[in-house]
Structure formats: C-alpha cells, structure tokens
Amino acid sequence: MKNTVYYDAQCxxxxxxxxxxxxxxxxxxxxxxxxxxxxARQQRTNMLKVLHLRDEKxxxxxxxxxxxxxxxxxxxxxxxYCFSIPGIYWLVNHYYNVWAERRYEKRxxxxxxxx
Length: 115
What we know:
Layout: E1 3-7, H1 12-25, E2 29-33, H2 41-49, E3 52-54, E4 60-62, H3 64-71, H4 78-83, H5 86-108
Parallel strand pairs: 1-2
Antiparallel strand pairs: 1-3, 3-4
C-alpha cells in the first residue's frame, strides 16, 4: 500500500499545494480528491475539513500530523520537527484547526444545506 493523501480538490489553495507536492513526491504518494471517493457522509465531511493521509501500513495521519508526514518525506521536513516542540505544536495545531474550520465553513456552509 502506498501513502495516500486525501484532499479537497475544490479548494484552490489545497489544489495548488497538492500540485506542488505531486511534483516533489514523484511516486512516493498517491493523491486522491475526497469528492471522487465513496465515503459515508460524515466521513466525507471530516475528510474535507482537514488533510488526511493513510500511510503504507494503513495508519491514518490527520490534520497537522498529515502535513508533517508529507513534509518529512522531503528535504523541508526539518521544519515539521521545529513545529513538533510541545508548546509550539499546540499553537500551530490550534491555528491549523481554526483555519481549516473557517475554510470548510466558508466553502461548504452548513451541513443541513447540503442535504
């Protein structure tokens, strides 16, 4: 099983970032649009909110940790170790989650509207 990154291809920023990672990664990662997958509604919603990565062993890495897993496979990976220091990790993870939630709400609005 290859490392698989699940992302929101309808998000312009996400798509630009993934296009860059595709160039840098070669064959090390597979990138899949969440919208093209057959996930249950709640799982799809969760996966659209933050980046998800399933590694070659089948373990899931979610949100900031998914980014770290991706970064650490490249020369810029050292940055993620700086962000992993406990106090700094908490702060970066908090802001990532706030940004991700706002991005999701701006893009998709309320879930009831999606029914």
